[in-house]
Amino acid sequence: MIKAGIIGATGYAGAELVRLLLGHKEVEIKWYGSRSYVDQAYASVYQNMFQLVDEKCLDDNMEAMADQVDVIFTATPQGLCASLVNENILNKVKIIDLSADFRIKDVNVYEKWYGIEHKAPQYIEEAVYGLCEVNREKIKQARIIANPGCYPTCSFLSIYPCVKEGLIDPNTIIIDAKSGTSGAGRGAKVDNLFCEVNENIKAYGVAGHRHTPEIEEQLSYAAGEPVLINFTPHLVPMQRGILVTAYASLKKDVTYEEVKAVYDKYYDKEYFVRVLNKDVCPQTRWVEGSNFVDVNFKIDPRTKRIIMMGAMDNLVKGAAGQAVQNMNLLFGLDEKTGLQMAPLFP
Ligand SMILES: NC(=O)C1=CN([C@@H]2O[C@H](COP(=O)(O)OP(=O)(O)OC[C@H]3O[C@@H](n4cnc5c(N)ncnc54)[C@H](OP(=O)(O)O)[C@@H]3O)[C@@H](O)[C@H]2O)C=CC1
Ligand SMILES: CC(=O)N[C@@H](CCC(=O)OP(=O)(O)O)C(=O)O
Fold first, then answer.
1. Catalytic annotation present for 154
2. CATH code linked to domain 2-126
3. Which of 13, 69, 127, 157 makes an SS bond possible with 144, Cβ 3.0 to 4.6 Å?
4. Contacts from 163-167 at CB under 8 Å and sequence distance 24+?
5. What is the DSSP letter of 56?
6. Which GO molecular-function terms appear in the entry (predicted)?
7. Which entry of 57, 81, 132, 150 is annotated as an active-site residue?
């Protein structure tokens, strides 16, 4: 059995990790880490875990945790994982960080966009960006996994084949994305109150959202050249789900069949990326609660642009599910272990 500890088990991403790991036949959760609920029963914080989890919440002592577990998930605010990790810990356990601390290779870019000092820049280079569909082999050898951001996962996987095969001019990419409010976490914020969110849709972080450099960096690797994008997220009155609609100029005339062949080349063997049938648009409801990303595209011959679309559950493939997928790779398990649940509907 793999022994797991979660720092931030009481947040939304952490709670989703608990749900997924309870259903994983090779994992035992040994440490439910919290900041505000230390010594309180985990099931008193999340009543869905009544009679399923008997343990109490513990603190965020990563050193002590590292003596008791094989893998530590950090589902905590930006900066916390970097402030805790050290060589002694990394010699004992694998770290899967759901925050952005190790996603961006240039520490100056991280510090500029996140507005905080990076406390462990010495580990940025060795950390592996945990997008399994792209970095599978590197992930297997890693000590630290930088679990990708939710918007970056959905955006990148929707666009990746077109960039990788040079079908589009990557510097014309515009990404319009929408997220349910669980993406903002459980912490109380006025912007996320029911009256602010319900019956409303709003853009935020326009021309400045912190996921912009993460998406640009990954697209740059795929394109083999620096890529600049426009990225606009929107908050929508749903609990879960991310929908991405991305636009880019085609470099040449292409047919549906040619582009479909490109998507199939990258995703035919990828269980968690479903390329939908012609003219079917991804919808968040058809991936909810699952680790699937549904993608598709439509060519607009009038404007010579292509519209690339993706839908995903921000808490599953966008966070906890992807973290479990990474853990499976790290421990030599079938990548799908514990993640083969069908999407939830209605
Ligand atoms: N929500 C999402 O869809 C996604 C989130 N993520 C990332 O996952 C991480 C967690 O996000 P999310 O679950 O939404 O956030 P939440 O606000 O819901 O949860 C934050 C968690 O971190 C704990 N925490 C906060 N401050 C500290 C601290 N100083 N020391 C120890 N623990 C602390 C909280 O503990 P307590 O509650 O006990 O105070 C809580 O368990 C973030 O880095 C986020 O970017 C990534 C992809 C998607
Ligand atoms: C709706 C909402 O607020 N979403 C969050 C993104 C989700 C998240 O927690 O970010 P990571 O994926 O980088 O960890 C945001 O815009 O900051």
1. no
2. 3.40.50.720
3. 127
4. 163/219, 163/222, 163/223, 163/227, 164/222, 164/223, 164/266, 165/262, 165/265, 166/223, 166/251, 167/250, 167/251, 167/252, 167/254, 167/259, 167/262, 167/306
5. B
6. N-acetyl-gamma-glutamyl-phosphate reductase activity
7. 150
Radius of gyration of the chain (CA): 20
**198 burial level (CB within 10 Å; 0-12, 13-18, 19+):** exposed
| Distance from Cα 323 to the centre of ligand 1, integer Å | 14
Question: What CATH homologous superfamily does 151-314 map to?
Answer: Dihydrodipicolinate Reductase; domain 2 (3.30.360.10)
Q: What is the pLDDT of residues 19-70, one digit of tens each?
A: 999 999 999 999 999 999 999 999 999 999 999 999 999 999 999 999 999 9
Any ligand 1 atom below 6 A from CB of 180: no
CB of 322 within 6 A of ligand 2: the answer is: no
Domain boundaries, the chain: 2-126, 151-314
Which residues sit opposite 56 in a β-bridge? Answer: 41
Q: Which mutation among 35, 85, 288 tests ligand 1's pocket best, with the greatest number of atoms within 8 A of CB?
A: 35
CB of 152 within 6 A of ligand 2: the answer is no
For the segment 87-107, the average pLDDT, to the nearest whole number, is: 98
Residue 312 Cβ contacting ligand 2 at under 6 Å: no
Q: Is 289 in the pocket of ligand 1 (CB under 6 A)?
A: no
- Rounded to whole angstroms, the Cα distance separating 53 from 22 reads 9
